[in-house]
Amino acid sequence: MRFILIILILINILFANKNITTITLATEDWAPFSFKDPKTGQISGLSTQIIENTFKLMNVKIKDIKIYPWFRTQKMGYEGKFDAVYTASINKERKQYMLFPKEPIITSKWVLFSTRNKQNKLRFDNLRSLKNKKFCLIGGYNYPKEFITYVLKNAKYSYVATENLNLTKLLNGRCDYMPAVLETTLTKIKTNKKLRALSAYKKIFYFKKPLATTKFYLMFSKKRVDQTFVDKFSNTLKKFKTTKQYQKIVKHYL
Fold it and tell me: Is the CATH code 2.30.110.20 the one for domain 2-106+215-253?
């Protein structure tokens, strides 16, 4: 009986993976990792191109990629409305609903941003220097655990849906600090029209001391994809990272 059960499980796994020839993805507007190219109207970015090339090597066609605010993107991944979502770090909540490959798409740093007119008033030597300060946060983001635990207990904070709104709040003096992934914020203040009109690049700075170094992944919905397929993606991604094409993509965006 046990032998028959094992055979049935193996057949189900093989059948599930055999049928995965197309995949649907969701992400957020989070340049340089993912964004809608204004010239082509297509979703592009560092994470997007790495994922596209990996699936191409797997002979899996990306049927669709949608962009939403991150809180909604994550929720739809949990509900199984998309096969996978990106670019995400690992936490306990996400692991309840999503499967993570062993291989990350990219590794980056979380830093604290502030405005230059507060540069001489604020500091970041350690977490204690953040006590009673005001923070701009984004709903659904997986901030570094030690940092967010301290802030929620010892500081003031408010949530918004997108990084653009967060940056606007920071520029308007409605918070002291904004935690963010380094590359995404630097890209936004250089390229976003509204932020450029506010001279964000000249007004914003970041503390060199990082909050954390984080690995970011394509995470797969447990309702739509099994672990065998995720492992295959992980192994293929690892191989793609050894290619010149991968280095070319990273160099272009970072």
Answer: no
